[in-house]
């Protein structure tokens, strides 16, 4: 092996980086445990506010290698929703309302009819809403031009009455796409308010949807309200501190009294060193009553500056960790009475960091007479990012006539003073007015980057085209369910790892120890890479991916060891056997892992949420397992050869286990075809008879996981909920293994088409009312999920295309790699065979087995992974078949014999890999928890079916195809002959004459003859 030193250095670097990145996770967990211990009362209860205060106090403080707690938390390997609880939401920007705004909120009945038709068509179509609307409008109002609707003053410069329908369609698509982008910007800003670590906000490509994941979020109603509320843009005057000095002085006095009451002691003079604070507070409170003593002023100022920090001559700020307390103080009725009646306060959208690494959030005191801003965002007609005369980034905006008039009055009254621009009650910017602005066109300059001006223009433009959002998919996981999932995941991972480690040693003996070392290194590198990749979170399917990687990573070592055993059996020296064994195994290793990797990339492309977490783990696991098996294992084995040692690759009972095996896989292939066809036929009958158990994400609706104090029958729950939900819901056991369980999963379509903000609360209340009828068995909702009918249809379509894409990609790769259609046909048939068999089993046994067999996104993820595993197994077999076919050239052996020999030569590898993977999946099924029980069952059955199809379906198809090609008559070649003897053509037989002559000769040879003796 070459470059051993380089490989050792690379391994050391990866190991050090893995330790470095994983250390952030351990530090973060340790600090959170300290916070929990600090907030735990003597009775064992946890004061969540006290815990949060502990974390806030360290949030901007260096805690590890110069990193603040915030930075450490951002770099830890986070947990997904299913492991710590939280909320998953998919928001859809409503394009119908955008079109209404572009059309000037017209009341044209034809327009409204076309909108309704487009909304109905969108439930079963993947076309853009604009295209559906345009087609519907042409249908309901033939002959009318779209320009008659959309050539409004708001669209001047973009559309006119002479614009063609094609031009209008293009502009509408651009405006809707822009509105969705602006809505995404607003949603991102809102999510930042939650203070949730590892929050994930992303646009779903090709749709008007935004995916939001908030691990640890525990107030679903607040999240719904903030995410779906209208974006409110306001322009307000700003109070100077001198104008409200009396209120600030009173605020300081209030804080002083509060501090005194809290300490339950008399007010003491400030300690030495606070005089400066008192002087600064006195300056801020200039204009206070003259009869205040200096001591009182100093004490008041000290109390004030303990909470509020001077940011500039006319502005205060608050340390980020103290904002919750500042909100409570400023909202106190006594404090509010100290300030003018029209004064409100708002926070800046972002803070700044001081030299001592503490973050301050500025606060603005604004004028809002009657609680209403003098100018709001509905007057903005356009906004764009630009550059001023000096080449600095700026933002330009245009207003309508009403806005221009109000803006002139507002800026004219505030020359030399700031005017705050607010979005969702946060101050986005507060530029100083240089002079009165007339005409409705103005620019905002400041210390902006180009990206900031683009974002600001998008935010300002949001006032022109409001883009309401609706929740089309929602999932809430309770913290209790999440902690149980963590326990189940850890147990299943550890048990699965130990079983595989033991199995490998039992089968391969001392060589198995080397494989185990490589496997442990692989696991360490896998977690290290996951921790290093930004935004990666560990989910329950991610743990399933780790457990599956444990089983599949054994495959590369098995392939290598089996090849080494073959070379040793040929009598080669130990060193040469290792070298040849690795070289001969490379082809199978790379081919099998590439096919699985392709499937993993398809999962990344189509998967969302939990399935994406599984795909990330699978893809990373493939790379780390290849590195460990090919390089780490080789380094260890080479160290044995260099020291003159040898190694056993088997133990007594496995030494001759598959040696000289001669199973006839090929001759009875028609029996296997019949068995598979029968199962598929039964599945078709089952589908036609009772269909599939579709999950809520494929049929739409709401589902709730409910925990009872005692086990309960699903029929009792169904009967209790039938009346409140207007029909019997679907109720299945969740987490149990029998008919009765203390957890059930309830699925209902009740009010699923109702988009009102209170619909979720109404359905949840109906469920709780029904559960309350079950006496003596208290119930609580642990998690919930909601999927609208539109997104359910989209998920079905994307699942269908993902499966077809996986089939096409794998078929193409095998065709290129093996250069024979026979192998492509075999792989294609095997893939469809595996998919149909799994679907048949899930339909036949749905409702029979004591756990859910729903067809949902998790099932599709399992199905794609099964296809990858099946191809992994099939390609290894194909690789050996190709090798045997090449070696048999010139030999008089039938295709069936050659391929049968190839199958027998890979039997040991097939058995070891399949058995080790199945052992891991059995552990995952038993201990992995209810969250992925159906997923792990599909994987377990899939591995069995995939192994079966590699031996008894894919390869027999290759036998049949190649045998047909071999049996085809070859076309005689024509040779050129320049000189032909005169009598040559007289002696040439035609093909028919040749066949007749040969038949006569054969008959003659078989006919008994009596002839005279030659004696």
Describe this structure in words.
The chain has 34 helices and 24 strands. With 1015 residues, it is an alpha+beta fold. The strands form five sheets. The chain has an eight-stranded antiparallel beta sheet. Strands 7-12-10-17-16 form a five-stranded mixed β-barrel. A hairpin with a 7-residue loop joins strand 22 and strand 23. Helix 12 packs across helix 13 and helix 29 packs parallel to helix 32. The longest helix has 36 residues, at 4-39. The chain is globular, with a radius of gyration of 37 Å. Mean pLDDT is 78; it is low at 265-295 and 973-1015.
Could you outline the blueprint of secondary structure elements for this entry?
Blueprint: H1 4-39, H2 48-58, E1 62-64, E2 67-68, H3 69-75, E3 78-79, H4 81-84, E4 86-93, H5 95-102, H6 109-122, H7 129-140, H8 147-150, H9 165-192, E5 200-204, E6 209-215, H10 220-228, E7 233-238, H11 245-263, H12 275-284, H13 294-305, E8 308-312, E9 315-319, H14 323-330, H15 333-336, E10 343-348, E11 352-353, E12 359-367, E13 375-376, E14 380-387, E15 393-399, H16 401-412, E16 419-423, E17 426-429, E18 441-445, H17 450-461, E19 469-477, H18 479-508, H19 510-532, E20 537-538, H20 540-569, H21 574-606, H22 610-642, H23 669-690, H24 696-699, E21 701-712, H25 714-722, E22 730-733, E23 741-748, H26 759-772, E24 779-787, H27 789-818, H28 821-844, H29 857-887, H30 895-905, H31 907-927, H32 933-967, H33 984-987, H34 991-1006
Parallel strand pairs: 3-20, 10-17
Antiparallel strand pairs: 1-2, 4-6, 4-19, 5-6, 7-12, 7-13, 7-16, 8-9, 9-12, 10-12, 11-12, 14-15, 15-18, 16-17, 19-24, 21-23, 21-24, 22-23
